[in-house]
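Hello support,

Our group uses your service weekly, and this is the first time we've seen a run hang past the timeout. The protein is Ferritin-like domain-containing protein. I'm not sure whether the cause is the sequence or the server load. Input pasted verbatim:
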Amino acid sequence: MVLLEDLVRLFQEYSEVEKRYAEELKSITSKFRHPLLKALIESVAQDSLKHSLMYQALAEIARGGLPLLTEEELEYIREGIVKHIQAEAEMIAKTKKLLEESKEPYSKLILAAILDDEKRHHTLLLDIHDKVAVKEKFGEEELWDAVWKDSPWHGTPGG
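Update from on-call engineer: The timeout came from a worker crash unrelated to the input. Re-ran successfully.
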């Protein structure tokens, strides 16, 4: 059985490994000027940095560091996510069209990579919206219910 402290340590270790990978990849791209290879390798480096942040977040969660969202925060997040879900859907359609019309192999390679990323981003944003932004809220009503619902005094001294 994995202990919580071990899990935190493991997530932190993976975060550092991903960060190191990103630095190594960026170092490689500093040695040449080929725009296609540079873009592709640097995008992998960016993904490694993203993974590092995600492992760090997992370490925080394993430590018990997952705060509840207020209704205001939730609404702000929801509005931003909905806007970006629409933007990703538009970019998927535009990139797909470009990919279908492209004849040049290098362009097709990059456009296919972009399309794949756009689809993953779109799916992730939909998941965040459906699983987190809608459910992770703790409003004033829930707060008062948590404090007073089962109390024999219901907020008044002595009943």
